[in-house]
Task: structure prediction
Amino acid sequence: MSEPQPATARRRSKFTLSYRVAALIAVLLVISAVVTTTFAVQSVQNAMYEQTNQSMANVHTSVGSLIKNEYQSVLDFRAAALESRRQALKDEAAPIVAALDALNAAVEANQISKSAAQAQALDMLRAIRFGNNDYFFTYNRDLVAIAHPDAKFQGKNLSNLQDADGKYVLREIRRVALTEESGYVDYQWVRLNEDVASPKISYVFHYAPWDWIIGTGVYVDDIDAEATKRLDAIKQQLRVSLSNISFSENSLFFVVEKGGSLAITPFARDLDWYQSADGADALKSIMAAAPAMDGSINAVTLKQTLRNGSSEQWVVNVSTFQQLGWYLVSAVPRGELTAPGQQLALQQAVLSIIVLLFGLFSGLLMSRRIVRPVEQITTAAQALTDGTFDPETLNSASQRTDEVGELARVFQRMGRELVERERALREQVRRLTIEIDRSQVAKDVSAITDSDYFQDIKAKAAELRRQKAEREQSQDTEKP
Result:
């Protein structure tokens, strides 16, 4: 049999086995906590990002639709006003055509000469005024002004005349009149007795009987002024309504104009930062991230100074409204989106520590319950090796109904059998030893008695006994 291990070694082995089980449970719990926390934090942050981005996208879509609708109302007003002006011009031209037809009919009836009729018509056209001192003008096919209220144009060829935008106005008038019979031409023109060009729309037609190009126009700067006034009012309303937009505690929503200034700022927020060099760089970065098309939204993460004078990560959504030259900007501090995840991580860490401690305690109890009978079996095996095995020490372990109990019962039965076999073997050895000892004694005695020395001594002893007997006999004879 192998030599028994010291008791200290056995105690160390018990400690290691018991706590290895607890350590394994602790490692599994830690791994589970780390994986669960990581997954939960990532899920929360992704959900926050998705929710915030969706909120910002919804804000951009709603604000874009609102601005578009309001801007469209201005465009509709301008279009309706211009259409009203166009119809008014056409209505003003209708009596002129009737008057010219009457003069032409008189010429055909030989009631008046053609030259006289045309001279009378030209005088009429030069003299007509309506509206805001508006007038008619008449050109021949060569674009010579044959009836114009402005003396500087009268009688001159104006085919090369350009407006403030470089447009050849008379050439366009002739093209419309000759190819379409009648129509409208937009251009920049200077009012009578003024020096600054203003937007104007003219209705022109070709009077075929005399091959004249006749037209009249009205200035529409008042319409544009009214449209601008309405647009400014709409912008003011938007400044009030959009300044209150908020989708998180520290979120920002503002509108940047192409020049880099803020058209709309959040209510009760300090945005003096944008006037600094860092603020100007921030606005440039934001505008650079803007999509080229209306209705699109670009989401970017920028490290900018948008509050408190400190640089931080921002999740920024940018969309555009080209007609107004606006960039719609919504921004949320990245830290605000990660904060719930960090808070969840902290809560999860605390919960994990509690679960870990509970798991360790439970693991120790479970491991001790599992290891204790194993230790009893190990102790019994050592006792069996030492020859001090007592089957009764495994009674508690053998009462278990699991595999450990089955092992204890088998070992207990095996131990009893081994102890009994060892006892029987020892008894056999003892008996055999006794028999071996007696045989050896007889053999040794025989060896001694059969020796010459023993025989000589035996003979001498016999001689001495004989002589003693003779002396005793002699003594008895001498007595009276």
